[in-house]
Amino acid sequence: MGEVKSSPPVRPWLADHPSQFLLLERAVEDEYRPRMLQELQRRVDALAESARGSSPACAGCGQQMVCQDVRPVSWLARFGRLRTRVARYRCPACHGECRPLLDLLGVEPGRISGSLARLLALLAVVAPYPLAARLAGLLLGVTISPMGVWRVAQRLGQAAASYSDGLSQYHADSRGEGAPTQAAPATVLLSVDGCSLGMQVRARRRRQTGAERLPPLPALEEGHFREVKTGVLLLPQERVETSPGRRSVVRRFLVSCLGDADAIFHRLYAQLRELGWLGANTMVVIVGDGAEWIWNRATWFIQRCEILDFWHALEHAWDFAHLRYGEGSQQADQWVHQIACDLKAGKVQQVITRLKRLRPQSPQLRESLDSLIHYYSENANRMHYDEYLRLGYGIGSGAVESAHKQVVHARLRQAGMRWSEAGARRLLALRLLLLNDNWSLLDRLRMDSIV
Ligand SMILES: [Zn+2]
Hints:
The protein has 451 residues and is an alpha+beta fold. Among the domains are: 22-111, no CATH class; 312-382, no CATH class. The chain is 46% helix and 16% strand. A five-stranded mixed β-sheet has the order 8-5-4-9-10, with helices on both faces. A three-stranded antiparallel β-sheet has the order 1-2-3, with helices on both faces. Helix 3 (114-126) crosses helix 4, helix 3 packs across helix 5 (146-172) and helix 4 crosses helix 5 (146-172). Zinc ion is lined by residues 58, 60-61, 63, 91, 93-94, 96.
């Protein structure tokens, strides 16, 4: 420590006040926020006035509906709480009810609505709920609990998830119309991958009562994981080489779901149709690891090229090399390096022939070698790497692995996180909107009520 020196430590400098400019900014904001609310209220009143008086026809049977009552309704928005009086109509024949003014405004009684709801959901998509609530205070000047942010994210997330489900179903039917395909690309790259997500063991949320602390979460057991599958779509010609050997992707579309293999492929298919990327002559290049579920569904695409991810192919070679030469040995390095060079040169058959000539000394080695030979023989038709490189298809699934990290790991796989099925599904749907630069879609979705 510096205690031998004579002069005492000096506190780092801190100004007595925020800068004048900061004070001006905040003063204007404080002054104008109530005026914004006033003006917004005035416009809501005007809209309510213009909608008054005309009784709607029943959506069910077409009969003229009758006004039942008019009640005060309020909701929370960006600049504060808004209020209006809302008429409720009832159909005398089928007893259906509606409140046309609320439908017109697109707000929900008593709830956070409009742009504030979307901004809170945006925070929840990038940060855990308690942090999102704190960000809401700092960025928006809004006081809200983590639970409040959670609720908004659930409602908008449900809307986004339902929309995406609906789109999948729509395009799964051949009568569903996609975007025009005149400008469809010659080649589309599709890669898929899966990772596991820790799920909640209990069926209900733990509730805090009084000051009592919540009991700790039980340890995760086997089987309390669900696989999240992610797929990436991109155009090979849009990949640019930023530095030799390093490709960065300009545009890519991510698809993700907590579901089975069919679900992710339905989503990928729907996204291709939405983009107009699946023309009559479009070649779909599918990159995957050895997983059967990928190749079984790849056959949905008539014009396709299947590629076994190059790094997965090498991983299997490493397994055998480590067993034969020892982990970290130079011989193992050299042996795998040779295989990598040969595979890149398109010599997969020569590699298999060479492997078959080996005479392993132990049963364990024999087993490992047989499995490697089997893996390469099974996938030989997906290992023409020289050709894929020449055609510009690429040979690795790096795009999907990094996408996976962005979609899932960065928000849903932080330390100790567990998810309910619905919670994960909703947050994934919102996260995809953000990462696909499609967030504004949320402006056109109605919040779903959740139970
Ligand atoms: Zn009716």
